[in-house]
């Protein structure tokens, strides 16, 4: 997949969006340094594919394990999109809990 520039989220202030994007970048780099193949919603990374209809912030894969990471902020945690994403990623994890892991991180 071709890397794309992350679009600003209209639900977040610029300050909160920057904090969100910094956390996504930090986590993406950490997983890449650990040998994971990383896809992230950031410039410089291939974009993640939708999972159960929702696009995660990060997908990290290594040795048959897949970790989906969603970074949330106070601005997004109570929104309907958050609920839909969380439900989609939990459903995806339940398909194969031995190889699928879902993490939610707060920025």
SS-derived structural category: alpha+beta
Largest beta sheet: what is the strand line-up? 1-2-3-4
DSSP strand content: 15-25%
Count all strands and give the number: 4
- What percentage of residues falls in helices of 4 or more residues? 25-40%
Structure explained in plain terms:
- By secondary structure, this protein is an alpha+beta fold.
- 34% of the residues lie in helices and 22% in strands.
- It has 2 helices and 4 strands, in the order αβββαβ.
- Strands 1-2-3-4 form a 4-stranded mixed sheet, with helices on both faces.
- α2 (80-95) links the parallel β3 and β4 (100-106).
- The radius of gyration is 13 Å and the shape is globular.
- Mean pLDDT is 88; it is low at 1-10.
Question: What's the short story on this structure?
Answer:
The chain is 34% helix and 22% strand.
Keywords:
107 residues, alpha+beta, four-stranded mixed beta sheet, 2 helices, 34% helix, globular, disordered N terminus
Question: How are the elements arranged and paired?
Answer:
Blueprint: H1 14-33, E1 37-40, E2 58-62, E3 65-72, H2 80-95, E4 100-106
Parallel strand pairs: 3-4
Antiparallel strand pairs: 1-2, 2-3
């Amino acid at each position: 997949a071709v890397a794309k520039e992350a679009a600003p989220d209209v639900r977040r202030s610029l300050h909160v969006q920057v904090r969100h994007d910094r956390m996504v970048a930090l986590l993406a780099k950490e997983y890449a340094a650990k040998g994971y193949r990383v896809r992230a919603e950031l410039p410089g990374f291939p974009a993640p594919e939708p999972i159960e209809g929702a696009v995660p912030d990060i997908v990290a894969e290594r040795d048959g394990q897949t970790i989906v990471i969603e970074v949330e902020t106070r601005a997004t945690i109570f929104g309907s999109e958050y609920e839909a994403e969380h439900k989609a990623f939990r459903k995806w994890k339940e398909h194969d809990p031995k190889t699928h892991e879902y993490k939610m991180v707060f920025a």
